[in-house]
Design brief:
single chain; 2 domains; 35% helix; five-stranded mixed sheet; D-Maltodextrin-Binding Protein, domain 2; alpha/beta
Length: 271
């Protein structure tokens, strides 16, 4: 009888211990807030490796992982728990006007922070250091830098900083495309002389997309930073900045960066 009572007490103590452990874990990593309104986030799933769709329609990429990490309870947005992200596919050149109309809460798609864009929308603190690069066919020995682009046929993505930069090239004949795969194919076909686009995305496409016959010119044309774009006076700006600071400090950002780029992430400015 005594042994039976002791066994029951042991079971009770064990159950209470498990319950306290569960409560403790829930306090450290609170569940996603079921009452939180989903955050509508626009993205253009053609910018590999930042955002793209798999064969079964699933969104993947660096930006997607980062946004989902921000939505996790560990990032602390809002303080009572996480929130749900509702991704909406949108052409890149339509993102700024969609944000201005406040039809989405935010946009993440390798969007460069520029003074011109800051006139009409808001940006989070920088989350990625990037730059524009020149891509040419492997047999091209004539294009080595900005000066050698003069008068050449240049391919760019519509609405991108690459498109803006191409306008500064004297006598350049500019062709605009909706996505990277389109202008890379035009380059391979010999319809354009060079592509001006994001360096990381171009190198990733060449390496992982198995684009044989394309190379990147050594020197970057620019240095720029990506930010999460939001409408002016967005109520989410401060919370997202705090969330990014948390991910940068707790090692989550580093894990995501190394997953996609296999190198240590660079230092990022606060603003």
């Amino acid at each position: 009888m005594v042994k039976l009572i002791n066994f029951k007490w042991q079971q009770l103590i064990l159950s209470l211990g498990c319950l306290l452990l569960i409560i403790g874990c829930q306090s450290l990593y609170p569940a996603t807030n079921p009452d939180a309104k989903p955050l509508k986030v626009a993205t253009d799933p053609t910018f590999v490796p930042f955002e793209f769709q798999t064969a079964d329609g699933k969104l993947e990429g660096f930006d997607i992982d980062l946004m989902n990490a921000l939505a996790s309870p560990a990032a602390g947005i809002p303080k009572v728990g996480g929130f749900a992200v509702q991704f909406e596919s949108l052409p890149f050149d339509g993102m700024i006007s969609t944000l201005q109309a406040k039809r989405v809460d935010a946009a993440i798609s390798g969007i460069t922070i520029t003074a011109e864009r800051l006139k009409t929308i808001a940006f989070s603190r920088p989350y990625f250091k990037a730059g524009l690069a020149i891509a040419v066919r492997e047999d091209n020995q004539n294009i080595q830098d900005f000066n050698s682009l003069k008068g050449k046929k240049i391919a760019v993505q519509i609405g991108s900083t690459g498109a803006d930069f191409a306008k500064t090239i004297p006598n350049a004949k500019i062709s605009t495309f909706n996505s990277g795969p389109e202008f890379f194919q035009d380059l391979l076909n010999g319809n354009v002389d060079a592509v001006v686009s994001d360096a990381f995305a171009t190198l990733y496409a060449i390496k992982n997309g198995k684009l044989k016959g394309i190379k990147v010119v050594a020197d970057l044309l620019t240095q720029e930073y990506y930010g999460i774009a939001m409408p002016k006076d967005s109520p989410h700006l401060d919370a997202i900045n705090k969330g990014l600071a948390t991910l940068l400090s707790n090692g989550t950002y580093k894990q995501i960066y190394q997953k996609w780029f296999k190198v240590e992430p660079p230092q990022l400015p606060d603003s």
